[in-house]
Amino acid sequence: QIQLAESGGGSVQAGGSLRLSCAASVSTYREYCAAWFRQAPGKERVRVALIDKYGRTNYNDAVKGRFTISRGNAKNTMYLQMNSLKPEDTAMYYCAAAGGQCIYGLQEIGYAYWGQGTQVTVSS
Description:
Blueprint: E1 4-7, E2 10-13, E3 18-24, E4 33-39, E5 46-51, E6 57-59, E7 67-71, E8 77-82, E9 91-98, E10 113-114, E11 118-123
């Protein structure tokens, strides 16, 4: 069982940046597929970015070129650097983990472990 905890959310003006962090309760976190999802009010939760155990990444087209997912030097951390933020990026952001290979779709299927979420609000 993995516990995940997000931090780093907040309010920012359009064009600004935020860095989200995800801390896992296990040192084997690097062996998992790790992802960031977001859910805006009234919308379904969708994947934003993922990173597999080899460091390969994949992004939702909506954030490609603006967001960067990475693993931290500590074995149990992951980050999402968000630049050039837009009002449509406003959402609750969640980190998630899946055992085995990454599933490259945008849905929640396959992710067994979730954090509580951190709110990101971008004002125009």
